[in-house]
Amino acid sequence: MKIRKSFTSLLVFATAGCSMAFAQVTNTYSYTGPSLPILFDANNAPTLMQVQVPVAISISSITTTISVNYPFAPDLNVYLFGPDGTRTKLAERNCTSIPQATLVNATFSDSAPQRWATVCPQQTGGTYQGNEPLSNYRGKISSGTWTLAVENNGSNSRVGTVDAFSVTINGGLLTTPTISAVGSAAAAQAIYAISPGEFIGIQGFNIGPTPGVLAPAGAALPTTLGGVQVTINDQAIPLYYVSSNLIGAIVPYQAQIPNNPPLIGGQVTVKVIYGGQTSNGLVQNLTSSTPALFTTTNDINTVVVAKAVNSDGTINGPNNRAAVGSYIALYAQGLGPVQPAGFQAGSTAPNTPLYTTTTQVFAAIGGQTTPVSFSGLAPATIGAYQVNIQVPAGTPSGQETIYLYNAAGHSQDNVFIWIK
Question: What is residue 94's predicted lDDT score, i.e. its pLDDT?
């Protein structure tokens, strides 16, 4: 069974002192697609126009220019969202006394003398303050998706369009690799720690090449990929994927991590080396394991289901359910060290010998403890664990919760499998 993971899932943001180099820039980024319709109030949904900012700028100030063609300004809420979700209100059902006020080619800037909601201009163009200051974004990092949200909150008959959106960003361009987050590449509960053999996602700025580079298939993961190295306590670790803002890597087993206490439970420092420069270091707790199931989203009610194989070889799902008493192979990550000793993280697990987890793993279906017949590395995969379980007598038919757990914690909540 081929196991592939997206490293854009759960990441734990952290901060650390670092020295960053800046070059002052002013860049404008504009939406280039077609006009978008403004929906009726009954739809209860905004129109979203988005701009991608590919570079990391530490923001000093921004301005935004929008063009909204709509006949009755008091219907509209107009918000700007930054890449981190910070919202700034530009207008919010204003200008009831001058409903013909226009937002066509309106620029919003903190340096403007008056708010748009105070002027309620009937001519196109002009520069105004928003209802909230754009200084909300000062000191934040520019890279990512900027979103203009325009919501009709007053009419089920009037129509209009959002025609244009741009952001102009002034600030310091980050020119050295900078890590902003390190975390599990699956939605584990113990997200504030990493564990041996676990795939992790590293998020940051200028930490790799554009476009991204994926490790070659069929070989052990390299410790240098696309000119990038990631180190834990100054030792290079295996890399799965590298790009300018995201890296997928795998944590070595404990014996391969230098300067770490004999018992897992200490702290390690993660760094990125790219373009001959070394990033800031983020300190992470190292724990014995961080159990997490590989999952997928079922088309039925968007239920999150475990990636599992039934005893007949079919993928578990609503049309291929596991019978009571049968065995299921679950796929997971973060189950920690394996035995016999000597297996190198980032290598393909063999069929012989089978590597088993050193920590006992348990499972539960629908709250009922489930027999575990095998827990170890999934043969022919990199970084994936396989846990074989038996569906216990008395398990109801239908969609049932599934957990893996050990002494260190349990897998994510609200994951299901299908039972006959």
Answer: 97
